[in-house]
Amino acid sequence: MQNYLPVSCVAIEKRQLFDYNPQVLSLIGDGVHTLFVRTMLSFSHQYNLNDLHSSACKMVCASAQAAAVKKITEIFNDDENFIYRKCKNAKCNNIPKHASLMEYKLATAFEGVIGFLYLSGQNKRLGQILNFVYGQEKTISKN
Q1: Per-residue model confidence as pLDDT tens digits over 16-31
Q2: Does the active-site annotation cover 19?
Q3: pTM for the structure as a whole
Q4: Which residues, other chains included, contact 5 with Cβ-Cβ below 8 Å and sequence gap of 6+?
Q5: How far apart are CA 9 and CA 11, in angstroms?
Q6: Spatial separation of the C-alpha atoms in residues 101 and 97, rounded to whole Å
Q7: Looking at 30, 51, 78, 79, which residue is catalytic?
Q8: Measured between alpha carbons, how far apart are the two ends of the chain, in Å?
Q9: Quick one: angle between helices 62-72 and 123-133, nearest 10?
Q10: Which of 26, 27, 108, 135 falls 20 to 30 Å from 87 in CA-CA distance?
């Protein structure tokens, strides 16, 4: 199995991250998730650039992220659940154009958990979750 994950050089204490703005965690998580997906696709398929971009967009859109988070919420540990709920319940400043409000909130929560794991230096756990979502790992435990 290839490792498509960008490795965080930073490890911010969890306590600090619990106080972070949920939108900041989601912004970081969005970038990490997008980079993971684009890297995975570029290694696994011989796409031309437009096809690669289109495929990546379909995998990182709000509805796809909402479906992904529904698949993994039961394996979240206490810290991940806390961040998930915080990001899901955060005030939404944007009105989504291509997703329902609930899909948008679930996608934001997914991105927030990804951002939290990345910023806290939990690279192994981050890799487990993303690889499970995309079928690279068949099972995952509640760490």
Answers
A1: 999 999 999 999 999 9
A2: no
A3: 0.90
A4: 36, 123, 126, 127, 130
A5: 7
A6: 9
A7: 30
A8: 21
A9: 110
A10: 135
